[in-house]
Amino acid sequence: QVQLVESGGGLVQPGGSLRLSCAASGSIFSINAMGWYRQAPGKQRELVATIRNGGFPNYADSVKGRFTISRDNAKNTVYLQMNSLKPEDTAVYYCNAYIIPFNRGSIGSPRDYWGQGTQVTVSS
User: Cβ distance 32 to 76 under 8 Å?
Assistant: First the structure.
């Protein structure tokens, strides 16, 4: 089984910073893209940032210049450094990864996996 476990959310004042981490574990053959999405109350889940296995980050316009996505392939971990946070960044942040799993000793079908979500609240 494959699991994504997030950490690093919390309460921060406007203008502050937070760093989210997400580690993938379990029967993993390979990981392609990893990324972060968020969902605010009453809104649809939206893309925040993604990064491919070889790099090439991609950001939502609303976070460009403030957020930085990175990954450590040796640790199967993706990070999101969030600076200059605004109240509108308040949301539950979800980690996502496109993973090819091992399934009973064989290579399984690739699919999206999601973390459980971590709350980020930006408020004074």
Answer: no
Distance from the Cα of residue 62 to its chain's centroid: 16
Q: Are 29 and 102 in contact (CB under 8 A)?
A: yes
| Residues whose CB is less than 8 angstroms from the CB of residue 43 and which lie 6 or more positions away in sequence, other chains included | 91
DSSP string, 17-28: -EEEEEEEEESE
Burial of 112 (0-12, 13-18, 19+ CB in 10 A): exposed
pLDDT along the chain (124 residues), means of 10: 95 98 96 97 97 94 98 97 98 97 90 97 97
* Residue whose C-alpha is closest to residue 26's, from 62, 65, 76: 76
In sequence order, what are the beta bridge partners of 82? Answer: 18, 67
Contact call for residues 55 and 32 (beta carbons, < 8 A): no
Look up tokens 């971990």; give the residue: 77
